[in-house]
Amino acid sequence: MKKKTFNIAELICAVISLAVFFGIWHLGTRGELGKLMPGPLPVIEKFLQTLFGGKIGSSTLIVHVAYSLARVMIGYFIGAAVGIVLGLSMGWSPLIEAIFAPLFRIIRPIPPIAWIPISIIWIGLGEDAKIFLIFLASFCYVTQNAWSGAKNVNPEYMNAARMLGAGKSRILFTVVLPASIPPIFAGLQVALSSCWATVLAAEMVRSSEGLGWIIIAGMNNNDMNQIMTGILAIGLVGMMLSTIFRKVEARLCRWNRSEN
Amino acid sequence: MRTKSKKRIYMAVSCLSVLTVLLIWYLLIDVMKITKSSVFPGLVKTFDTFLSKLVETKPDGATLGQHLLESLKVCLLGYSIGAILGIPLGIAMAWNKWCDWLVRPVFDLIRPVPGLAWTPMFILIFGIGIEAKAMVIFVNSFVACILNAYTGIRQTDDLHLWVGDVFGATEWQKLIKIAIPTATPMIFTGLRTALGGSWMALVAAEMLAASKGLGYMIQQARYISRPDLVIVGMLTIGVVGLILDTILHKIEIMVAKGMNAQ
Amino acid sequence: MNKRFGMFLVSAMALGLLAGCSGGEEAAATAAGTAAAGTEAEAGSESAAETEASGKLQLSGRHWKIGGQVRQTSLYLYYARDLGLFEEAGLDVEIVTLANGPALNEALNAGEIDAAANGMAAVYVLPTENFYYVGDATINFGGQAMYGRTDSAIVQAGQYGDTPYYGSPETVKGASILGLGAGPQQYIAYAYAEALGLTSSDIEFVAMDHPQAYEAYITGEGDLLATTPPYSNLLESDPNYTLVADYTDLAGGPLVDSFIVSKELADQYPDDVVAILDCVYEAMDRLAKDDDARAEYAMDLYLNEGGTTYSDEDMASEIANVTFWTWEQLANPEYEFGNTMKVMGEFLMEQGLIEEGSMPQIEAALNHSFIDRLLEYRAEKAE
Questions:
Q1: Whether B9 and B94 share a structural domain
Q2: DSSP state of C62
Q3: Does C211 touch chain A (CB under 8 A)?
């Protein structure tokens, strides 16, 4: 992997690429399409205007972001915790794998949005149902990666540890767990972005705030400007989340490497 | 021999675990009736609905098979376009830093936006036909393919590239002969992830405008208060997703083996 | 992986066995359930009758959650809340806003709300025997309608025979109709096809939410649009679009919305239900009698709670098309109680959207005793 350094050329490229993107959008919406779809300027204007000052629905944009983030974070962390435990156990013990693998593999392809009717019946219309949907998104990705991570640990390491007299649980904690950290982190990152993408589905269960709600309310009123503002906000926050995550991971993985 | 018998035991455990879940479902709803079947259907009712839906077009105008076929069609169309465009772009981004710098900001901005959010816009641009739905799926598969192709190429060992340099290989030769073969297993992982993602995005796509498809079936069943049909739809999505994943996993293993043989 | 498949087949077979063994029991259980429900229904009307004698309503003080939508369908519910009628009556009512009829049904089934000011969609929950249809609500004479493009072959074909509908079997065959699934819009599409001598399989009904369907239609998608206010108002005033068929003509009467209450709660607290009905019919009475106040309130509500901007013309058209019950009308109704449910129930059963043989359950759910009790209570109070 080549080392990445920040430089002027990269910055210029970023500016050019975003400018081209907004330029195409601007030109594209000047013609016939413009009557139905707003160009970038009104969207950015609405975005800035509602960020702290103006309101969409009952709150400012930043409050909507906070609501959505809170839901996503709670669901994400619960899902990650359950997923890591289940995934590692499945990778480590063939018996546990035999029990849970078939169930997990059937549940995994079912998208959160298809769970909405069931979660309303089981959990209701409150916050819990929204968190449950986000939990599902996070749980599936993390379990999958922890499972394959723990399963793909080089058997030679395990044999070596066994030869040196390590017990089963000792092998789990000193060999399997450290070796599965990189794939788990990869899973955590994908899970974070997929949780963030699930917020829209989650807020389809009755809500009156959140970025998903902004888009849903926009859809209900044919307010393309509001929809695009919501999309822009989801994109920006998602971008920030993955950047932060990459930084954290870089740090933890460096620790991981030095330990090995 | 011993591993074989062990495998058999584990298989039996797997069967048992699925049966246990079904049994719990049966006991809770069908026998103990902890909730009314109009709220959460029993196992027997769900199975009946599944069987009758195989031949019956009511209540949503198509049999389960027709819905499934329609969904697979949309899903594979969007998926293959995403893969065809995504893999080369991912490779280009990993190989050429200018390409990376130019594409990445827009890519990072668009990537977190869920497929569902694009739907109003896609309807405006592409209409309500198969195109808008395929576009939603396209976005999904495109992103996964780019990411994995990118990571795959980036994994190329510098040492191998230096060897190429020593033998006077051109950039193009290094890409074709060294980097892409290295990346192939990763690209296949990407293809597999993308297929999973595409299949999941399908329900969202079909919820916006459809007259056939598994997503439409679930949505319609919700509208007419038929939770049994919702569950049949969910399980069908689950099982078909499992089958698709298994097929691609087989191909993935074959490709990985082929690479090693070389 | 083959092994997992093997396992799958095995479990499917086991499932088949289970189903085979218990088929008979299931049928017996359902029969028992129906019988039990029948006696319960009788008990319900009795309990309403029992309290009649006491003259005054005995409120339980329980917290009622009532579902509504920010549209003409539930307008009266919000009006009753904002007039403070519920508090005046000593009721503790919380209004839960949901997006559409199917969402209200889902919440009713899940027990998340106790009652709902719902539309025609209520017909889907009545066969469950868990709810009473206690009152007719908003009356839609127009607006629930289907439009075509004026220059399209369907409209150009002129009126079909002596029907008020535009189009001909040749032009409509294979047409794609956009509209919200499973509601009056789908009814309009199918009933229209039948009126032209076609069947529901001759047309393609594309299920979309109202706003998306409208947006897609005006950008040139689909052949016909089955819609609801405010979109029907927008199309009505545009010469490029022509009214092709209307619910009131197809069904032979207006679309009457519904007020649904959980059967269990209604049986337990009949007086609460009567008091709630008292409030909502009072709100309807006031809405029906004062168009200016109604226009002002509705436009405000739609904007603030729904985010929908109504123009004065939209509002005028809604007032012309949609009306509410007055006390006088309620005492001498022009329409058969719960008729919309019966018409739609029959039709949806034919189309297979409701399971066959559900009609007795739907009819059993139509419960007029609460309105009877309400009218008596008001007569006593007036004396």
A1: no
A2: -
A3: yes
Contact status, residue C179 vs residue C216, Cβ threshold 8 Å: no
Q: In chain A, which residue's Cα lies nearest the Cα of C7?
A: A102
- Nearest one of C345, C348, C373, C371 to C359, comparing CA atoms: C345
Q: How near does any CA of chain A get to the CA of B207, in Å?
A: 10
Residue type (1 letter), C65: K
Q: Give the DSSP H/E element, type plus range, for residue C264.
A: helix C263-268
- The answer to whether residue C26 is domain-embedded is no
Domain that holds residue B117: 37-261
Segment B49-58 shows an average pLDDT of 88
- What is the rounded CA–CA span in Å between residue B49 and residue B42? 11
Rg (chain A; Cα; Å): 22
- Structural domain count of chain B: 2
Q: How far apart are CA C142 and CA C131, in angstroms?
A: 28
- Scanning B155-210, the segments in alpha helix (DSSP H) are 158-166, 171-173, 180-208
Same-domain check for residues B74 and B88: yes
Q: How much is the pLDDT for C39?
A: 42
* CATH code (residue C173): 3.40.190.10
**Subunit contact C107:A125, Cβ cutoff 8 A:** yes
Neighbours of chain C (3+ CB pairs under 8 A): A, B
How much is the pLDDT for B231? 93
In Å, what is the CA distance from C134 to each residue of A118, C276, C364?
A: 28, 11, 11
Question: Among all residues of chain B, which has the CA nearest to that of A187?
Answer: B193
Measure C247 CA to nearest chain B CA, in Å.
Answer: 20
Range with the largest mean pLDDT of A235-249, B140-154, B164-178, C107-121: C107-121
With a CB-CB cutoff of 8 Å, which residues 205-234 of chain C face chain B?
205-208, 212-213, 215-216, 219-222
Assess whether B108 and B2 both reside in one domain: no
Taking CA atoms, C173 is separated from B130, B213, C153, C226, in Å, by: 21, 22, 11, 16
Task: Please state, in angstroms and as integers, the Cα–Cα distance from residue A217 to each residue in B120, B173, C1, following that order.
Answer: 12, 53, 45
In the structure, how many helices (H) and strands (E) does chain B have?
11, 0
| Nearest Cα to Cα of residue C86 among C280, C260, C258, C372 | C280
Contact present, B18 and A102 (Cβ < 8 Å): yes
Residues C57 and C166 in one domain: no
ipTM of the complex: 0.84
Q: What is the CATH number of domain A43-259?
A: 1.10.3720.10
- Split into its structural domains, chain C has a count of 2
CA C57 from chain centre, in angstroms, equals 28
- Per-residue DSSP letters for C169-235? HHHHTT-EEEE-TTSHHHHHHHHHHHHTT--GGGSEEEE--HHHHHHHHHTT-SSEEEE-TTHHHHH
With CA atoms as reference, report the closest residue to A131 among A69, A66, A62, A57: A69
Q: C110 CB near a chain A CB, below 8 Å?
A: yes
Q: How far apart are CA C183 and CA C102, in angstroms?
A: 9
- Please give the interface size between A and B, counted as residue pairs whose CB atoms are below 8 Å apart: 159
Spell out the domain ranges in chain A. 43-259
Domain that holds residue C207: 145-251
Closest-CA distance, B232 to chain A, in angstroms, reads 11
B190-204 tens-digit pLDDT: 888 889 888 988 877
Residue C373 has pLDDT above 90, yes or no: yes
Beta bridge partners of C115: C66, C261
Q: Which of A35, A104, A125 to mutate to test the interface with C (most CBs of C within 10 A)?
A: A125
C117 by DSSP, 3-state: which?
strand
Of A4-8, B27-31, B139-143, C112-116, which gets the smallest average pLDDT?
A4-8
Question: Are the Cβ atoms of B10 and A98 closer than 8 angstroms?
Answer: yes
Dihedral sign computed on CA atoms, order C92, C97, C101, C106: negative
b or e along B148-186 (b: 16 or more beta carbons within 10 Å of the residue's beta carbon)?
A: bbbbbbbebeeeebeebeeeebeeeebbeebbbebbbbb
- In angstroms, the Cα distances linking C356 to A218, C184, C353 are 38, 19, 9
